[in-house]
C-alpha cells in the first residue's frame, strides 16, 4: 500500500497533481464564495468549509469508483451525429446549470431593488449546500479525470486532493471577502463561470477548447480588473 513512498516518480506526481488540483479548484472557490454571499454573515464560513468538504468527499468517492468512471465514456445516445456518454451528459447538464445560475446572479446584481428584497429573506443554508453539491459533481469529475491521467497510485491521488482542498479551505474566506467587497470583480467572476459553463457544454459535445486559452483569458482579465480597482482607489481619494 505504501510502496509508492520509495518512488521519486510518485512524489513528483503528488506535487504536480496537488498544484493542478488547486488551480482546477479556483473556479469552485469562486462559485462557493458567490453562493455563500447570499447567506447571513454568521453562516458563511460554515457553508464554505462544508462546501469544500463536500468537494473533497465527491472527488475521493469518484476516485474509489474508477471502474464506474471508465463506464461513463460508453455512448448512451446520439445528438447530431455526436455520441453522448454519461460523462458528456454530466458535463452538459453542469454547463447549463453553471450558465443559468451565473446569468441569474448577474441579473440580481443589476437589479438593486430585487436584491434588497432578497436580502431581507436570506437564502436557506441547506438550499445553498445542495447547489454547491450539484456543481461539486461537475468540478470533481474534471478534477478526477486529471488525477487519473497523472498518477498511477490511488493513494497519491487522494493525498493530492486532501492537500489541495486544505489549501482551498484556507484561501476560500479571503477570496470570498475580496470578491464580495468589489462588485465589479464579482461580475467578472460570474462571467468566468459562464465561460467555464460554455466550455463544459463544448466538452460535452466533443468541441474541445484548450484550457490554456481559457486560463490565459481569465488571468488577463483579472490583471486588467486589478489595475482598474487601483485606479478607482486613486480617483476616489480626496
From TrEMBL:
Domain of life of the organism encoding this protein: Bacteria
Pfam families attached to this UniProt entry: TerC
UniProt keyword terms in alphabetical order: Membrane, Transmembrane, Transmembrane helix
Presence of keyword Lyase: no
InterPro entries in UniProt: Integral_membrane_TerC (IPR005496)
GO cellular component, one term: plasma membrane
Keyword Nucleus attributed: no
Name the record gives this protein: TerC family protein
Amino acid at each position: 500500500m505504501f510502496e509508492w513512498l520509495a518512488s521519486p516518480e510518485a512524489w513528483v506526481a503528488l506535487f504536480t497533481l496537488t498544484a493542478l488540483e488547486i488551480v482546477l479548484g479556483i473556479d469552485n472557490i469562486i462559485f462557493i464564495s458567490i453562493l455563500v454571499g447570499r447567506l447571513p454573515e454568521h453562516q458563511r464560513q460554515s457553508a464554505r468549509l462544508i462546501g469544500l468538504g463536500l468537494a473533497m468527499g465527491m472527488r475521493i468517492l469518484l476516485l474509489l469508483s474508477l471502474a464506474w468512471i471508465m463506464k461513463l465514456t460508453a455512448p448512451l445516445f446520439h445528438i447530431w451525429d455526436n455520441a453522448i456518454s454519461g460523462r458528456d451528459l454530466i458535463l452538459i447538464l453542469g454547463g447549463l446549470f453553471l450558465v443559468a445560475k451565473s446569468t441569474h446572479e448577474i441579473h440580481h446584481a443589476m437589479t438593486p431593488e430585487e436584491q434588497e428584497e432578497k436580502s431581507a429573506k436570506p437564502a436557506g443554508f441547506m438550499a445553498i449546500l445542495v447547489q454547491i453539491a450539484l456543481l461539486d459533481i461537475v468540478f470533481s469529475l474534471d478534477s478526477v479525470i486529471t488525477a487519473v491521467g497523472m498518477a498511477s497510485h490511488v493513494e497519491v491521488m487522494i493525498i493530492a486532493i486532501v492537500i489541495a482542498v486544505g489549501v482551498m479551505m484556507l484561501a476560500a474566506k479571503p477570496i470570498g471577502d475580496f470578491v464580495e467587497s468589489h462588485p465589479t470583480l464579482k461580475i467578472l467572476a460570474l462571467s468566468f463561470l459562464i465561460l467555464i459553463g460554455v466550455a463544459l457544454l463544448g466538452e460535452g459535445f466533443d468541441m474541445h477548447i484548450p484550457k490554456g486559452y481559457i486560463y490565459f483569458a481569465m488571468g488577463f482579465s483579472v490583471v486588467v480588473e486589478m489595475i482598474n480597482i487601483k485606479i478607482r482607489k486613486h480617483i476616489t481619494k480626496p
